[in-house]
Structures are given as structure tokens and as C-alpha cells.
Design a protein that fits this description.
Blueprint: E1 2-6, E2 13-17, E3 22-24, E4 31-33, H1 52-66, E5 95-101, H2 114-129, E6 136-139, H3 152-163, E7 171-177, E8 180-184, E9 194-198, H4 203-206, E10 209-210, H5 211-219, E11 227-233, E12 245-248, E13 253-256, E14 271-276
Parallel strand pairs: 5-6, 5-7, 7-11, 11-14
Antiparallel strand pairs: 1-2, 3-4, 8-9, 9-10, 12-13
Length: 288
Amino acid sequence: MEIKIICHRCKQKFSASTTTEIIICPQCRTVIPNRTPRKQSPPSGGDYGSSIPSLIGNLLKKLCHALKPATAPGLSSFVYPKSCGLDNVGALGNKRAVLCGVSYKKWKYKLKGTINDVFNMRDLLIQYYEYRDENMLILTEEQPDARLIPTKANIESSLKWLVKDCRSGDSLVFYYSGHGLRQPDFEGDEIDGFDETICPVDFLKEGMIVDNDIYATIVQPLTEGVRLHAIVDACHSGTILDLEHYYDNNEQQWKDNKPPSGARKQTSGGKAYCISACEDDQVAADTT
């Protein structure tokens, strides 16, 4: 059974299956939550809860409402917080976020919408989820603070900050908008034979950040009662956190992503969720 859809961004009219959890506009690639999702339980042994697909749908619904029109505003319209989590000398709040947007403005492969994405996500977290500026790290190439330029070293440091001294009740968010690539897996822990990566602004010189390292930095340390939500808007980002299960939206079921090598890819008792722009073998489109 199909339903008729009108994209709220580009006004494109198209049809979609009623069993599809998340709909993507074929014209502008905007994500549109389906209001009639099909429920599906996770695989046996996985403590995910049967409501995870609907929880993701609710988050995306709020995100779609919160996003501003893609008007490519000038950088002068953005106001960077005067302070950030790196300046906090006391205990960090129980809600922390790292928001990273890389535009590669000096290169021919520059992206137009990443800074806009970061500030939309910041607004979403503040307006809907009660996050605070002082407990966020916002990394873009326009930052006046050199510590917050999205270099490889700065992104890695920010991810360590995100999970530092995390404890039960903490809610952590990692948002990344930028390029993503793949490279051959030489450790035998990828089913498809490729590691997924994100690309810092200096990746041509310093290298990419590999999914194995992202897992080790922000997934494995999560202790009991800590929740991490990662939203990765990049090509080849399907399993960028190396989680042991993923939700196949086409088949409407959870699938096993455990490493063939037998390596352990779990948290230390906490929960990690990832929303990706596309599957590992797909590319994502840039918008303004």
C-alpha cells in the first residue's frame, strides 16, 4: 500500500510505501518521517526495545520541524557562544554535545550546508531537549577559537571531552556534517571489508578518523545509565559507530553487524544509537 507525499522543502510530489519507517524525498533528499510505521522487534539478545524505530522517527520529526529553510544565510548571521565546554573547570552538565560541521571552504570539494546544519542542530537541542551552550562544543572552520576548528586533532579531543567522566543519567550527542569515505579493512572486523571514515578539514595531511577509533572513543566507554545519540550526515555513514546491530529500513528488521573477527564491539553498559544519512555503500547529497 502506498501513500502520497509532498516534500515540505522542495514541494516534490511522490509516492511511498506505508511500511517504510523513514521516507527520503527523491528530489532534494530531505528526510520525512512516516506517520504509519511498521513495528519491528530487535534481534534476540539485543536490549534495544521494540520502540527504537519509532523513537528515531520522533526525533527526526522534531528535527524536520526545527530545521530552518535552506537559504544559505551569510556567516554573519551566526552567533558563536562566548564560552564552551572546554572552559568549564567544574563538573560538566549531564547533557553534553559535540556538533561538528566541515565545509572544506578552501577546497574544490567544499560543502555548502554544513554550518547551517550545525546551528540548526544546536537550536534543536536547546529548544526541544534543554541542552545549554556552555555544555556544547561547536566545531566549524569559522570558529574564532582555534581549539574548535574541525581538524583531526580537535575532533578527536572533542570526542574524548564528550564522554569524559560520564555517569548514569548523562545524555550525550555527537553530530557530524561533512564528507565521509571508506577504506579497506585490514583487521577483519567489517562484514563488507571496508572501514567507514569521517574527514576532518585537514584529512589530506593528517588522515581520516576511522570508525574503529570513533567506537573506541565514544561508544566503548559508555557506562551503565549513559546514553549516546550520534547523527552523522555524511557519505558511507551507515555503520560509522561500529555498533553490533543496525536497522535495515528496506527489510524493516534489525540485522547483525558483529565483526567477523570476533572482536567485541559493545559499550561498557550504556546505550548508543546512531542515525546515519545513508548506508555504507551509498553517498549523501549536500544541500544549503
